[in-house]
Task: structure prediction
Amino acid sequence: MKGNVRKTEKQPLGKRMAAGGKRFLKNVKRDKALLLIILPVVVHYLVFVYYPMYGNIIAFKKYSPVKGIMGSDWVGFRYFIQFFNSPYFTRVLKNTLLISVFSILWGFPIPILFALMTNDLKHGAYKRIVQAVSYIPYFISTVIICGMLVNFLSPSSGIINSVIKAFGGEPINFLMEPKWFRTVFIASGIWQGFGWSAIVYLAALTGVSQELYEAARVDGASKIQQVIHVSIPCILPTIIVTFIMQIGTLMSVGYEKIILLYNPVTLDVADVISSYTYRTGLVEGNYSFGSAVGLFNSAINLVLVIFANKLSRKVSEVSLW
Amino acid sequence: MKRNSWKKIVATASALALIMGCLTGCGGEEPKESSVQPSEQTSSQETSESTGSDSSAPSEEEPASAGITFPLAEQVELTIATPDGNVASLADNLPVWEEIQKRTNIKINWDVTASKQYVDVMKLRVGAGGGKLPDIMFLPNGLSLAELGGQGTILPLEEYIANSENIQKAYEQFPNVKALTSADGHIYSVNTLNESAYFAPYSFIIRKDWLDRLNLEVPETIDDWMTVLRAFRDQDANGNGDAGDEVPFSAGGHAWYTTYWANAWGLHLFQSDGWYPDENGQMQYEFISDEAKEFYTWLNAFYEEKLLDEEFLTLGDENKLYEKVSRDEVGAFTAYPSRIATLEAALEANGVEGAELIPVVPPKGPYAQMTEVVGDMTVNGYVVTSSCEHPDVAVALMDYMMSEEGKELMNFGIEGDTYVKENDGTYSFTEKVTANPDGLSASEVLSSYGCQLGLCYLKSDKREQAMLYSYPEELQQKIIDVTDATRPYMVAGMTLPPATEEESESISGLSGDLATYIWEMTGKFTVGTADIEAEWDSYVEYVKTLGVEKILAVKQAQYDRLTSQQ
Amino acid sequence: MVTEKKKTMQTRRRRRRMSPGDRIFTVCNYVFCFLAACVTLYPLIYVFSMSISAPEAVISNLVTLLPKGFSLKAYEMIFRNGEVWRSYYNTIWYTVVGTTISTTLTMMAAYPLSRRQFFLRRQLSFFFTLSMFFSGTLVPMYLLINRIGLYNTRWAIVLPAGAAAYYIIMARTFLSTIPDSLYESARIDGATEWTILRKIFIPLSMPIMSVLIIYYAVHQWNSYFNAMIYLPGRKDLQPLQVFLMKILINNESVAGEVAGSATMSMISLQLKYVVIVVALVPILCVYPFLQKYFIKGMMIGAVKE
Result:
């Protein structure tokens, strides 16, 4: 197929376009119905998603709310350079990547495991309750979750330290120890989100035919083998797509929870790109800077996704596009 | 599949471009918008010229509010954008504002947003341009007077203010205000002013009953404080039989709170952020001074001795501190004395008998005895936008707010309903306020009437005294005594006039990084993860590489503007 | 993924007895799921207990699991206000209409993209995915809403929400597991695209639709910022979250000002928890209705050729 593309490229341009145009029209005719179905969504995207994107140009301007987006002065890459030259650039970049990578490493498999496990529960009511209960923490606002964390982890009165003390250990001031920050942050994130993230896998698992399990059983497959050879392959497309999209969030660790949990002593490991820009924005009200950092993140995320997508298409034939 | 992908992308893209083109074409206001602005600018320049230097040649309209007397002969409508009240919405015709409208014959259309979102929403509306702005708006944080004024979005007010009797009087009473509300030589905003900034200021608060239980005196010096707090730590001060559950001194979740102690080292870290002039009028950054080094060394020992709450950085916010206080765990902390009544009630509700909290006169330290007090002016004020057709009326209304009449309405509400004026000139609230049948607190009742909401005003010190009604006689007296005893040590925090566009340009991006570093190091010095002796020089060096000199230059210029205008 | 071999091998037999390995697996599974349920149920119980405990117990940090004391004062405070009902109504309106619009749009995008033969499949997938990385910004959005006349109308809340690219991709991935042969045979039987959509596609896609409904509903239910900026003049259109935010702000005393009355400040912490419960309960009730689509095997009959 690749060879084919090159061959067509060698043809004269006009001819190619004519041929392409003809084929295009033919395709349009054939897929008329599908096109009609998708058209409203495309239009919606153009209006409500792509059109407002022009606001991102303030990354290259010195945005002044008074002058507006179009009226502000161009400054080129000034804010990008300011970010790269910031004394905190390497630190926040490193922390962001570490937190994301470990979040994915630990946080990605757990919802899948959970979905597979609950899917295997035989008692309908038990299964329903476990599933329904698991997604509740997702609804509790970050502020409350962090408040609870502070309570539980308190060195004087926290539940966790009471347990440690009961076993004769020394209480740990978790939130004041840099080495504990990532663990606390990621573990609590998983706790809050695994049930919610599992929903989509549960939906995918409904698509697996019972007959496949029957067949596997006839083959003498154990439960674990059934999971490995039937369930997982069947939901693999969903897993891969979710994974690729996770890769696309590598640069974005939200600031809210970070700033609720960090303090000067843990800043070394806790400060991420978003919390850094949040503070900068707070102090100076600098939209352009925030926008530049946002664009930088987006660009990297996009490159990562394009790469992951290519790889996945090669290996598994599953891809985002 | 791949064969055609490029062509398809081109085809799709051109189709998209077509639709997009149509969209922007249909929309089509974008270019207009940018063409509107310059014209607005010129028109405002014209007005500022015509109303400007040559007041001898007034246009057909009276230039200033000189001729305006309330109630107006003919009703004028004004739209005011402001953060909404938390107890009741201004949009619901609150009694105080009904009264003001009646007395001035101005019809006010409220354009209100919940206070927490006001800044975001209003900045967006100003930034989006296009639409008509309200006549008067509360300047959202982050917008600069200089820039808005330069663009002609807001109007220079000095011409109108020149004839505004009450605002002029306020300028005499608060000599800094004129400089703080001006930019590029024009006065652009009228701000809320506070007569009571020096009444019951933020201070140390201590458990008097703990002192009594341990037979200790109220501490007067830093050393006294150390002795007292050590006793709290070791001697079961709350008397519950467990000598280990007391936190001698706690703070609300940010390293900033601990810098309140720095006052005793003569440092202005708490309210002025360390930017403070020395005796020669030279701005200094006190965070890197030698005194600061000594202070941090002390603070570190304070923490190491477990006198400072080990959770002082993780509590999250002040409310957590107050919860801790209510649980009978904390011996001393910093807060406004107005908190005391609530905290004592909470302690009592928690079954702690005889709990008594008292404010303390600032302690004498190695270099000073002082307490920094917030400025007497709100940082942001009310501006008149170029959409306003009656700027003279707008300023006259603001002037009215600053008058005795306006002051009474905004501070005390409706005479006879919420307050009575005694013969000696003091005010006292009615039972509707002091013992509200709905269980609202006094300030909530007043807020539901529209007091201290909606527009600039003068915060009366008499109100603060009237608000003490709910305190036991003894505590009332205590607060007044401590305020009096503290007064000689009060130092106003430094508020500087707005930076010019050029100035803020020159230090863009610096303050954020500096603040990050300062709080990080304050925390680390305190807890001991950074060694003060070993790292001090590199700390000072690093602060300098972060551009502190540049910021100082700007602060100096701002400070000079302030002193020259006084 | 379904190998022909397995299909031909399949013979119906009664379930065999579990092997010891399987039994251990099942027991572990039950135990783990139980633990997971406990761990996740805890915050809910905690929040609920906090919301109905005596205010003193809340402030004193006495509540660890079950309520200590009993008080509905905080609930009373919220429901005393007539505004709460109107904002409940508004939120339900936004949630129902918004979710319907969003889900419909998502499915309308996902369906063509899941069809292997659709010639713009990859290009349009990219078109949607790209939007995940470069979001539109507030000011142009605000201008747009103003310009097309949605400002201060209900539609400003539900229309821009639209279909999230993430969910379009999710839904597309799910739908692409529906075998093409189903459509083929339907087409051979003379069915139009429209009939295929209605008769085969929608029933088969119920699980993913319920996922979308949950996700979108929760999103609409919790959102408040759009209402703040697009409905400034319309108090009567404000959703529940805006109202709840107001209640919360209301009880944060302003520093320097004489603090609220003692009872109020006792309640203010509790109010946070009450607000969570008030906002959470209705949306929690929706889940069980959608959950039945997740229960395994509901589609067997349909997928069989």
